[in-house]
Amino acid sequence: MREGYEGTGPGAITPDGCAVELYARLPVGDEPDIIAGAVPAGARILELGSGVGRMTHALLERGFTVTAVDESAEMLERVCGARTICSPVERLVLGETFDVVLLASFLVHAGDAEVRRGMLRTCVRHLAKGGCVLIQREGEDWHTHVPRERVDPAGFTVRIVSSEPVGDGVDSVHAEYVFPDATWTQTFRTRPLTRRQFEEALGEEGLKVDRYLTEDRTWVRAVPVADG
Predict the structure, then answer these.
(1) Sequence spans of domains, the chain
(2) Is the pLDDT of residue 86 over 90?
């Protein structure tokens, strides 16, 4: 387990505190539709941090070709129909490029700034000419509107119990996922980024915002600075 990360509950727990059984239960939201609306039909997608394939499977159903990358072999065992690669995102070198590189699950907010830089470099390294990077950001009140909870229509409750500063601009977040038959918790570190800080982080690695895809600016289409 990485320092500052922890997970509890039934089944395997990954080094960043994610429970495989939990993520296998969580439903996919509107993310696949957001992605499909921002990229060419049938695009080749490199999905970084795919987990159990919640979005992978939905993207395959929409006609995309997906290569799913995750550092957890236990997560990747749940992925069906896509090529899978077990690797830390920040160290991935495939020697090939893709129409779309997908960095979802708030990975751009990695508590370790060097890990974030490595992830963004991975995005650029694997991007085909004329391609784009799709990034999912945290909501802009994500760390201030705490504690909070949401009851999902599927019948479980998600609670963000606390978000506490641990130094150097990083917060430790504790979350709970309560199902009728099981409860999981996750503690992880994340670095809040204002819109300006986020755009500066992209610029450091040669990327720029092409457009924000959602009204709350949590989904972003980015392109290489050199493309424009």
Answers:
(1) 19-140+193-224
(2) yes
SS3 32: helix
- For the stretch 156-159, contacts whose Cβ atoms lie closer than 8 Å and that sit 24 or more positions apart, written own/partner, are 156/25, 156/180
- How does 27-59 read in b/e, with b if 16+ C-beta sit within 10 Å? eeeebbebbbebbeeebbbbbbbbbbbbbbbbb
In CATH, which superfamily holds the domain spanning 19-140+193-224? Vaccinia Virus protein VP39 (3.40.50.150)
pTM over 0.90: yes
Average model confidence (pLDDT) for the chain?
A: 96
The confidence score (pLDDT) of residue 129 equals 96
- Rounded to whole angstroms, the Cα distance separating 205 from 65 reads 26
For the chain, first and last CA: distance in Å?
41
d(CA 69, CA 112): 20
Report CA torsion sign: 103, 99, 90, 1: positive
Name the residue type at position 167.
G
